[in-house]
């Protein structure tokens, strides 16, 4: 049994004890424990249970075959897709190479013109620079000498302060270390004293026992080995500490030599400073002249500051306008985010409830079908016994010498379940042929009734099969129509997103172009002397402008992405509601009413549709697709915003899988129940109608069975021979 039905077991259910494993598996597969019984070396089943297990095993193997086919087909499709992808990449490579060559040629020409301009401007600027450099060098020499003297004094004071701090901190650290060490040693002493007391109590208790002397020598050997290991470890630590001390001494000696060299260099610098102090008198006249030039430059600076003030006022006004627009975009973004979150939460809750109800209903249906199947099996056995009784009565009445069947209680027929489903079915066929021989000569009315019942059942079976085929065709057509509508909606969504990306790209290019022109104008004014690019006010103003522009671009991108996401979720929800109309029309009506009540969602969708209809978004479809791919690769935040859409798709796929599983199980249960009904109808009495077979109350306990003549060998262990002899010989 374990090797045959290993397919129905999971890896976690397989235990070392095979009998316990088989018992756990049968409790899961067969709910009624009266349908099987464990023997010493075998398992005994009632009639029909082996066929039920074979059916489960065949279903499991069929599912494995389907999975293998799915994997192979996936591999073939992936291989075909990769071949097409490599061809497309080759075409793109050659096209981009041609475009790159054209761009390189244009860039070479532009670079040549730029180089010519560069050298001409460099000559003019070099002359101007050298004139300024000659004047600046004189000022720099005086200022640097003064700064060097100040720096030397500051370094000397800092060095002395560091030495004082070093000794103070060292003394404080040593004091803190001593206090911590004393506290740690005291704490260790207390803990070791407590442990020693506990160990002493244990040793006193062990000393009273005889086994203590036996374990003493073994404990002493372990302690000796532990002490030897500790000594080796301490020797290793001592060697490592000595090596570390040698390294620290060498580093300290090199550091002291370096400090001596630095001290000698500073002394030389001090002597040079004393020699150059004589030149200060000659340079004071030059300093007076430079002060006069400085006053002239200060007047020019005042005029430049006036111009910068007016320019700063204009830029502040522009920044305030940009901030207002940014605040409006932020509020719109927050509203859209909140609306999307509420909508996604409602849909997830609704889908979770629907899936839970569907799974619960499916479990109840499956349990009902299983119980119904068990009842049909018991009814089949009861009808079989009734048929055997009828055949015996007919045989006795006709005085035909046929081997009869003795009826025994169900407790004496425990070996009956050794037959498989095939042998039982063969015996039923033999019994039916024997009954036909008997009734051919005695009672023809019973045969006519059975034939009539058989034709009625065949007609009913054919009609049910036709109805099932019609239902499957209708389902396939509805599914194909839903797939076409979903692809159409998905195409519209992609087209809308591509148009939005095109609008975003055009606006970004326009803003970047305006910003570049503004910067060029500022740089041009600074080159002519009209601006002050080095002033702090100018830098702060320019930074604020750049930050405002960047934040404005980010807000626009977020608003456009949120709008497109809102429209895509609405279309996906609408498509999902259309699919659910086949099984849940009330849910569709409820969702439509909810959508009609959401005024904000409706207004946003209408506004986006109006922008989508504008003629300036209907140009260049190839460039739009290329731009969409670049934006998706360059914006990871877009995938975070699409997580809600992916969640909807996953839920839709799960729901479709559960629908397919439900239909498959219902179909199998119907076919199996029809098969059982046909088998039971072929052996009923003439007075038994189909309604009585189904509606008659079932009595599953104490079912009488006919005794059979078994032929075959029994398997048992050698030590069980005496027990078998005692049970056989009464």
Automatic annotation (TrEMBL):
Name of the protein this chain belongs to: Unconventional myosin-Va isoform X4
Predominant subcellular localization, coarse grouping: cytoplasm
The UniProt record lists the keyword Coiled coil: yes
Any GO BP: establishment of meiotic spindle localization
S-adenosyl-L-methionine found in the keyword field: no
Residues covered by region (Disordered): 396-421, 465-484
A GO MF label: calmodulin binding
Entry GO terms, CC: cytoplasm; myosin complex; spindle pole
Protein family (similarity comment): Belongs to the TRAFAC class myosin-kinesin ATPase superfamily. Myosin family.
Residue ranges constituting the Myosin motor domain according to the UniProt record: 1-58
Subcellular location as annotated: Cytoplasm
Keywords assigned by UniProt, alphabetized: Actin-binding, Calmodulin-binding, Coiled coil, Cytoplasm, Motor protein, Myosin, Repeat
PROSITE patterns: IQ, MYOSIN_MOTOR
Alphabetized Pfam families for the sequence: IQ, Myo5a
SMART domains: IQ (SM00015)
């Amino acid at each position: 049994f374990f090797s045959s039905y290993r397919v129905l077991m999971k890896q976690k259910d397989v235990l070392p004890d095979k009998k316990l494993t088989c018992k756990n598996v049968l409790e899961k597969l067969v709910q009624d424990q009266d349908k099987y019984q464990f023997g010493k070396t075998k398992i005994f089943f009632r009639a029909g249970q082996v066929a039920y297990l074979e059916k489960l095993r065949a279903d499991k193997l069929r599912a494995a075959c389907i999975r293998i086919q799915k994997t192979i087909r996936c591999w073939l499709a992936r291989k075909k897709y990769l071949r097409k992808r490599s061809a497309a990449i080759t075409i793109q490579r050659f096209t981009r190479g041609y475009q790159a060559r054209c761009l390189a040629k244009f860039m070479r020409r532009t670079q040549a013109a730029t180089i010519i301009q560069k050298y001409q401007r460099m000559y003019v600027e070099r002359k101007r620079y050298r004139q300024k450099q000659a004047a600046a060098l004189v000022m720099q020499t005086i200022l640097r000498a003064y700064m060097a003297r100040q720096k030397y004094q500051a370094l000397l004071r800092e060095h002395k302060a560091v030495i004082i701090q070093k000794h103070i901190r060292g003394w404080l650290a040593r004091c803190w270390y001593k206090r911590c060490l004393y506290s740690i040693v005291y704490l260790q002493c207390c803990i070791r004293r407590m442990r020693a007391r506990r160990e002493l109590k244990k040793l006193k208790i062990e000393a009273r026992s005889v086994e203590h002397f036996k374990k003493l020598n073994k404990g002493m050997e372990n302690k000796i080995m532990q002490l030897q290991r500790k000594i080796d470890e301490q020797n290793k630590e001592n060697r490592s500490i000595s090596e570390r001390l040698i390294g620290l001494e060498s580093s300290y000696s090199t550091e002291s030599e370096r400090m001596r060299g630095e001290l000698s260099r500073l002394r030389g610098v001090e002597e040079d400073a004393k020699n150059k102090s004589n030149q200060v008198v000659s340079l004071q006249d030059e300093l007076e002249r430079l002060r006069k030039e400085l006053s002239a430059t200060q007047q020019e600076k005042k005029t430049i500051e006036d111009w910068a003030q007016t320019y700063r006022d204009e830029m502040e006004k522009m920044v305030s306008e940009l901030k207002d627009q940014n605040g409006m975009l932020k509020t719109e973004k927050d509203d859209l985010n909140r609306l999307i979150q509420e909508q996604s939460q409602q849909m997830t809750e609704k889908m979770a409830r629907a899936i839970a109800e569907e799974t619960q209903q499916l479990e109840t249906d499956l349990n009902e079908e299983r119980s119904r199947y068990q009842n049909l099996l018991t009814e089949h056995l009861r009808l079989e016994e009734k048929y055997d009784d009828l055949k015996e009565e007919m045989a006795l009445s006709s005085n035909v010498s046929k081997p009869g069947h003795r009826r025994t209680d169900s407790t004496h027929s425990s070996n009956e379940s050794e037959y498989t489903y095939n042998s039982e079915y063969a015996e039923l066929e033999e019994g039916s042929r024997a009954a036909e021989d008997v009734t051919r000569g005695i009672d023809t009315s019973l045969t006519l009734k059975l034939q009539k019942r058989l034709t009625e059942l065949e007609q009913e079976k054919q009609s049910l099969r036709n109805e099932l085929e019609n239902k499957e065709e209708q389902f396939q057509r509805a599914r194909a129509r839903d797939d076409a509508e979903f692809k159409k909606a998905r195409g519209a969504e992609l087209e809308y997103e591509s148009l939005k990306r095109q609008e975003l790209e055009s606006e970004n290019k326009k803003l970047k172009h305006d910003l570049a022109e503004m910067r060029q104008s500022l740089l041009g004014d600074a080159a002519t002397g009209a601006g002050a690019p080095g002033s702090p006010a100018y830098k702060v103003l320019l930074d604020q402008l750049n930050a405002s522009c960047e934040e404005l671009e980010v807000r626009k991108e977020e608003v456009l992405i949120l709008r497109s996401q809102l429209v895509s979720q609405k279309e996906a929800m609408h498509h999902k509601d259309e699919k659910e109309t086949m099984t849940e029309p009330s849910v569709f009506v409820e969702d439509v009413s909810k959508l009609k009540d959401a005024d904000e969602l409706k207004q946003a969708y209408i506004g986006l549709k109006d922008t989508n209809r504008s003629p300036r978004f209907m140009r260049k479809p190839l460039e739009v697709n290329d731009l969409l791919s670049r934006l998706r690769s360059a914006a990871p935040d877009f995938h975070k915003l699409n997580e809600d859409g992916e969640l909807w798709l996953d839920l839709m796929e799960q729901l479709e899988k559960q629908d397919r599983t439900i239909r498959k199980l219902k179909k199998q249960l119907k076919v199996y129940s029809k098969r059982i009904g046909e088998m039971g109808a072929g052996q009923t009495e003439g007075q038994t109608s189909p309604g009585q077979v189904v509606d008659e109350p079932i009595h599953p306990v104490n079912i009488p069975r006919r005794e059979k003549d078994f032929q075959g060998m029994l398997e048992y262990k050698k030590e069980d021979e005496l027990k078998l002899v005692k049970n056989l010989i009464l």
